[in-house]
Amino acid sequence: MSEASVPQGGALAGLKIVDLSRVLAGPLCTQMLADNGADVIKIEPPSGDETRTLGPPFAASGDAAYFSAVNRGKRALALDLSRPEGRAVLLALLEEADVLVENFVPGTMARWGLDYEQTLAARFPRLVYCAISGFGADGPLGGLPGYDAILQAMCGLMSVNGEPACGPTRIGIPIVDHLTGYTAMTGILMALVERAKSGRGQRVEATLFNTALSLLVPHAANWMESGTAPGLLGSAHPNIAPYDKFQCRDGPVFLGILNDRQFRRFCDYLGLAEALADERYAHNAGRLRHRDALRAIIEKALAGHERQPLCQALMGLGVPAGPVNSVPEAFAQPHAAAMRVGEGGYRGVGLPNHLSRTPGAPGRAPPRFAEHTEQILQEAGFDPDRIAQLRESGALPAAP
């Protein structure tokens, strides 16, 4: 296809996604698809997506800021899928859909007669069906619900995060949910690429459990090779030194010195001739073995420096260093200007990637509960009388 004939409006323009997911991993996945041009129809249960209530803070719409973080660019509909009328609406929407995303407890869709293998695959052979769950349907933990912090605990992430004084600590962002959203999106896109060749959809599965274990780099590999279980290192790295947080006169900085060349430049800039001449610090393996003694030398050298000019100078020399910023400080950086997006009452974080010919863009503000019901159903062929009947049946629930 020539460059001139590539459709505009985002790389995924023309794709229709039916999104049954709620909370974080699934909604984040579908928001990223929407940011890149896909038409995402968010279908909520009668009680709504739980994240609408997870505040304060609350936006002017009345929904929690948490909800707005992962639901922009979507159109909203509410269905009671426990009712046959609600399931009939879903099936009608799937007639034109490319992808279905759900994160119910495994077995829920089967109980409603919406199982992929038994029902949907034959009826919608081109459908890519993405199931997101805590543990999957099979195995000793199959079918159990999953939550980010619980998976951080179960899968060893907390055991390598935190200081010895405070013990294992939850990572301060829902990193398992977040990466599971990316894992699901990657699987969906791979399935769509394969469908372009075979003409057939398939089932994609992403689990919090597998995602959490995949995050243990390099800790799992270190343990598998050495037999030694990794422990708490605070902000330090198990394989690299100095790769840690250090205190300057006006606050902490992080040094990420990866190789000998960077270490020499760092020592030259700070006047650490003694450290440069010490064979213990000549190579990473030695610096790692003697990290405590090296730390004392570095902390003494940094005590008189202010963090911003220090980091700017070191980065200019090719030595990785950055101030440990707060969230407001992070977004106040001039380089972060493009990552703050929004209009009207909506504020959000921008897209982390950029495509040169088909760039994505943050979509409309996150939808109110069932905001686009009539529009979505009319597009699917439902006339006003039928929509009224669905409301009367309870298949189209009112706002919770």
List the helices and strands and how they pair.
Elements lengths: L15 E4 L5 H11 L3 E6 L20 H4 L5 E5 L5 H11 L4 E4 L5 H4 L4 H8 L4 E6 L14 H7 L20 H24 L4 E5 H7 L4 H8 L16 E6 L2 E6 L3 H11 L2 H5 L6 H6 L1 H12 L4 H10 L4 E3 L3 H6 L7 E2 L6 E2 L23 H7 L4 H10 L7
Parallel strand pairs: 1-2, 1-4, 2-3, 4-5, 5-6
Antiparallel strand pairs: 7-8, 8-9, 10-11
Please explain how this structure is put together.
Pfam families: CoA_transf_3. This is Carnitine dehydratase. Keywords: Transferase. With 400 residues, the protein is an alpha/beta fold. It is 38% helix and 12% strand. The protein has 17 helices and eleven strands. A six-stranded parallel sheet has the order 3-2-1-4-5-6. Helix 1 (25-35) crosses helix 7 and helix 7 (175-198) crosses helix 8 (208-214). The model is unreliable at 1-7 (pLDDT under 50).
- What is the helix tally? 17
Low-confidence stretches: 1-7
* Largest sheet report: 6 strands, parallel
Instruction: Encode the helix/strand succession as letters.
Output: EHEHEHEHHEHHEHHEEHHHHHEHEEHH
Calculate the mean pLDDT score and round it. 95
The quaternary structure here is: single chain
The proportion of residues forming helix, as a percent range, comes to: 25-40%
Rg calculated over all Cα atoms: 25 Å
The count of strands amounts to 11
Strand content: 5-15%
Give the end-to-end Cα distance, rounded to a whole number of Å: 48 Å
